[in-house]
Amino acid sequence: MSSPYLDPKFKELEKEYNAVVQCNRCGFCETVCPTYMVSGKETLSPRGRNQAFRELLEGKIKNPENASEIFSTCLTCHACTNVCFSEVPVAKLMSSARACAQEKNNFYPLQQFLLSLFLSQRKLFSLICWFLFLCKRLGISKILKQLKLLRFIPELEAGEDIILKTPLIFGGKKNVLKQRKQEPSLSKKMKNAYFSGCGIHYLYPKVSTACLKVLNLSNLGIESPNHSCCGLIAASAGNLKIAKELAKKNIKEFSRLNPNQIIVDDDSCCGFMKSYGELLNQDPQAVQFSNKIKNISEFILENEAIPQIGQTKTMGKVTYHDPCQMGNAHKSTDAPRKILQNLKGLAFVEMDESNWCCGGAGSYCLKHPSLAEDILERKLLNIEKTGAEIVITQASSCLLHLEYGIRKKGWQNKLKIMHLAELLSDSILQRL
Question: Which residues contact 226 (CB under 8 A, 6 or more apart)?
Fold first, then answer.
């Protein structure tokens, strides 16, 4: 039976309403919420966002756009849910909240169309990225910023400062995946697939190549099919319909291979894809697909894919930063640490608040650069306290924002940010 307090025009969001009313405003969430901790604003706390969404669904907020900033500034880092007695899934609720706040915006239909078009067609998306990266390399975007013309597209204006590397050749070198003559005993159950997230594919193609080199040495039949965006970009923008379409498309594309496991190179994508079952209302095929998703550290550890890893070329103290979508959302934190602790030449040091968001959060640092920098500052202080010379992570947005923070601090000569696959590729190739 529907709640008498739920506005009839939001009846399709009854599930979300039933979740948000579980918030009893105790305030425990505020102790772990980065946006609240750096701003001190109640509206930028999880319970503040819950209250705003509840009032919107009850029809008490007459103009939903008034709540747009409250919802859009959520990092969707999942930290609040982990300390919530009622386990209110604030990060997941924010996709629906953002959709409600934007639905009367004249640009919302255009945004939906563009997201659907570009994210489902990687070749078209690649063309747009290539053009934007070329403009940055030629200094065109810098001139446009100086002329204050980029202020009409805030994400591009912020990106001019935050994004340093602009490769014009995308994706990993798939020819790294050599065809191996497998023993007859290796059956179809050994077949696995590789998913390259958009951030890694476009911004860090060397990481993608490193992942493929590492996976190739596992001798477990890795294949790398064409695929679409995982859907996280659309979900974060409040376009759950498009996110679901992309999820279904990926499930269909990968089902042709019928892989035993699907290895994802970006933890943000990995965490989102592990939730496909929930996103698609527990559809059996989606649940089965989600259960196959692994990040590279989980895959290596669970399959003993690379039993002996040698000396690393990069030596010294190393620490690990947990990307939110895997650390907070799925509590997958052990695998990368166990691998790092067993690498010769490295001394692993645990970081305080290793699960504190770095402020990257997908495209968050481009949409809310000032707030993201305040959040990043606390992460950098915790990194500095470890005395580490290397910070390892497994998400492109974390790599991007941490690199930006290090440049601002002037720490380039004493601190290095790497994806775990880069470090493993280094050590494995040395062993061979």
Answer: 122, 253
Q: DSSP alpha helices (H): ranges in 11-146?
A: 14-20, 34-39, 46-57, 68-72, 79-83, 90-102, 108-120, 122-137, 140-146
- Looking at the structure, tell me whether residues 58 and 117 fall in a common domain: no
Compute and round to an integer the Cα radius of gyration of the chain.
22
- With CA atoms as reference, report the closest residue to 35 among 69, 65, 63: 69
The pLDDT tens digits for 178-217 are 544 444 444 444 689 999 999 999 999 999 999 998 888 7
Q: Which amino acid is at 340?
A: L
**pLDDT profile of the chain (432 residues), mean per 10:** 82 94 94 96 96 95 89 96 95 93 71 79 91 95 91 89 93 61 46 93 94 82 87 91 94 92 96 96 96 94 68 80 96 94 90 96 94 97 96 97 97 95 77 48
Q: Which residues pair with 294 in a beta bridge?
A: 263
Tracing tokens 């953002």 back to the chain, one arrives at 98
Is residue 62 within 8 Å of residue 313, measured between CB atoms?
no
- Domain coverage including residue 147: 108-162
Helix, strand, coil percentages (3-state) for the chain, rounded to 5, are 55, 10, 35
Evaluate whether 365 touches 372 at the Cβ level (below 8 Å).
yes
pLDDT score at 182: 46
Does residue 245 share a domain with residue 179?
Answer: yes
pTM above 0.70, yes or no: yes
The domain boundary, picked from 141, 162, 183, lies at 162
How many angstroms separate the CA atoms of 42 and 46, rounded? Answer: 8
